[in-house]
Amino acid sequence: MEKNVGNLDATLRIFLGFFLIWLGLFYMKGSEGKLLGILVALFSIVPFIFSITRKCPVFYFFKISSISKKKL
């Protein structure tokens, strides 16, 4: 699978990952042992992986790319 996540998209995914960590651990009380909060915090790994590898399977499936045409 080729890279299909651009710079802005990767940055937004990193912010989404940090937001999900905050949401799960603090707002949903995952740090106190609440299962749903822990699951949300663990799910934050997904946007981090997609932003680091610059590959998104959903984008690949729908043949979408957020990389500018100049960089291709």
Largest sheet: none
Query: What class do helices, strands and sheet pairing give?
Result: mainly alpha
Distance between the ends = 14 Å
Q: Which spans of ≥5 residues are poorly predicted at pLDDT below 50?
A: none
Q: Judging from the principal axes of the Cα atoms, what is the shape? A: elongated
Radius of gyration: 14 Å
The SSE order reads HHHH
User: What count of structural domains?
Assistant: 1
The total strand number stands at 0
User: What helical percentage do the residues reach?
Assistant: 55-70%
Q: What integer is the average pLDDT? A: 94
Counting H and I runs of at least 4 residues, what is the number of helices?
4
Q: How much of the polypeptide forms β-strand, as a percent range? A: under 5%
What does this structure look like?
The protein has one domain. It has four helices and no strands. It has helices at 7-27, 35-43, 45-53, 57-61. The model has no long low-confidence stretch (mean pLDDT 94).
Throw out a few tags for this protein.
single chain, 72 residues, mainly alpha, 4 helices, elongated
